[in-house]
């Protein structure tokens, strides 16, 4: 899909909500947004048949989600004799996961974010509708569904991660993906009786119903004690690190809209010791929490949910001085723990996350499960013909769609160069973008890389001329209208 086609898809999204913005206003906004302009310009970039590489080799891509299918498309554009196979079991694997937050807040419907895998398989690319159950990088093969052996010359791992609800007592045995594999999650108690999670698609739809139930309960609520809305952030890396806070901000907006905000107390329980890993964004978020009357308690990890009695139990952990080490002339630090039980009326669970066992327990995995790669070239640290990107890659701060958009271009450049016997030309700089929704109508666009400074401080200032720590309606328009078409029709064509 070319630039004008992506632009038309953006305008089609705008026309669904004429009460917010007209087509003419959207065109005006897009013309002054450097970020939108850079993505749209990128949509016209790609190797022509004349300049495409003639390198040959069989490429297998394990995982056909956003990262994997976009990589297949870009490789297909870059090679004149492409031999590419994508292995993916989920028929809706290319669905727009960042939109689940908006579904959870009742702004979008599930149908707005659901896309069919088979409609986005690039021409000439082969698709195996199955799951890789074993990796054998020593012999350059993978096994599909326990029986079909598939060989490769180059392999790209883009499986995504697993949502490990089962790590929380009371939700035992539940490990799922974002899409169709969610029956076990719902059977465990999530999506009913005040317990919700936007991290799987059906759960996002149920979260909106849960918010409406909370509003109804607040309208009927009498007495001095407030209803309790609790939001969690686990002790593992997660995809879309801002989502646990986004849904909290949106619940706040819906409560304000209904006139019952004063009847509900909103409290955030993150496992970590701050709101954001970058100081400027942390400071901005803390102020936003104060302005909205939110409460928060750092160093709390959700370990148990009593769904019948609606009680969440956290491991509160902190450091204290232990014995003095005379040789090192310092105190050893001892981690202390206490169980904290928190009654709730509404609980949003962000699950612990991990690599799929088939990946983490194989030779291509690592002790922590994630696939170990050179963080700049995205090549595996042990196997020269294995590459990885997206949520399953062991790179710092890389589990967002914005990261994947930068990673797949770097990976394709490098894999083509490797097939040609050349040195690797491209480096991923850790770019990540998190459109942090702070209300219905405002977004703080947190954009940064491994330099750990906001974009407005120089990381990507050319595409980000406004103060990135400020909440703005213009970034809401980017998040709600522009990013989905740019992703679905730009990235998945391999050109944005």
UniProtKB/TrEMBL annotation:
Q: Which Gene3D superfamilies match?
A: 3.50.50.100
> So which domain of life are we looking at?
Bacteria
Q: Which GO terms describe its biological process?
A: sulfide oxidation, using sulfide:quinone oxidoreductase
Q: GO molecular function of the protein, one example?
A: FAD binding
InterPro entries this protein is in? Answer: FAD/NAD-bd_sf (IPR036188), FAD/NAD-binding_dom (IPR023753), Sulphide_quinone_reductase (IPR015904)
Annotated FAD/NAD(P)-binding domain residues: 58-177
PANTHER family noted in UniProt: SULFIDE:QUINONE OXIDOREDUCTASE (PTHR10632), SULFIDE:QUINONE OXIDOREDUCTASE, MITOCHONDRIAL (PTHR10632:SF2)
Write the protein's name: Sulfide:quinone reductase
- What organism is this sequence from? Sulfurimonas hongkongensis
Q: What is the lineage of its organism?
A: Bacteria, Pseudomonadati, Campylobacterota, Epsilonproteobacteria, Campylobacterales
